[in-house]
Amino acid sequence: MHIDRLEKRWATVSLGIAGLFVLVILGSAFFQGIHAPSHIETIDSASLHLSGEFAEDKLGVHEDAAGNITVRIVAGRYGFYPQDIVLPTDTPLTFRMVSQDVIHGVHIPMTNMGTMIVPGYVAEVKTVLHQAGAYPLICNEYCGMGHAHMWNNIKVIGKAQWAALKHSQGDANHE
């Protein structure tokens, strides 16, 4: 079987371009810390609100004694709960999210934070928000008629403001 020299060149160029694309994807995933989820946790979506870490009184921002911040969010038609979240800049954050009903996507524009929230599973994302300001947390997976209105407010403040906020909340809790 004879293959023309021009056909060999085009095949080589095509395979080279495909190989270059694969290298770019793998390189960007490696250098930007993008990886497939590996720690799979299951949860009963029907009883989220009754007990455990996703009970209504345990949602939102929680800081442990070591200063680790965990944000617990429940996605349900058509909102993220709690609605308003305040977080500090330049601090490692762990977002733990679950769905009450259908598949939701979650994304904070202008950051690297985004994932899918599948019913029955806990989605966990670790990130750091470097810029103070207001960010929307939006659903980027069509989840029904109210999908366009499914968003949340995230306010990122400086570490000094965060310390003052924690101090004032601590004083309020001790009164």
TrEMBL record:
<keyword id="KW-0186">Copper</keyword>
<dbReference type="GO" id="GO:0016020">
    <property type="term" value="C:membrane"/>
</dbReference>
<dbReference type="InterPro" id="IPR008972">
    <property type="entry name" value="Cupredoxin"/>
</dbReference>
<keyword id="KW-0479">Metal-binding</keyword>
<protein>
    <submittedName>
        <fullName>Heme/copper-type cytochrome/quinol oxidase, subunit 2</fullName>
    </submittedName>
</protein>
<dbReference type="GO" id="GO:0005507">
    <property type="term" value="F:copper ion binding"/>
</dbReference>
<feature type="transmembrane region" description="Helical">
    <location>
        <begin position="12"/>
        <end position="31"/>
    </location>
</feature>
<keyword id="KW-0812">Transmembrane</keyword>
<feature type="domain" description="Cytochrome oxidase subunit II copper A binding">
    <location>
        <begin position="66"/>
        <end position="168"/>
    </location>
</feature>
<dbReference type="InterPro" id="IPR002429">
    <property type="entry name" value="CcO_II-like_C"/>
</dbReference>
<dbReference type="GO" id="GO:0030313">
    <property type="term" value="C:cell envelope"/>
</dbReference>
<dbReference type="GO" id="GO:0004129">
    <property type="term" value="F:cytochrome-c oxidase activity"/>
</dbReference>
<dbReference type="InterPro" id="IPR001505">
    <property type="entry name" value="Copper_CuA"/>
</dbReference>
<dbReference type="Pfam" id="PF00116">
    <property type="entry name" value="COX2"/>
</dbReference>
<keyword id="KW-0472">Membrane</keyword>
<keyword id="KW-1133">Transmembrane helix</keyword>
<dbReference type="InterPro" id="IPR051403">
    <property type="entry name" value="NosZ/Cyto_c_oxidase_sub2"/>
</dbReference>
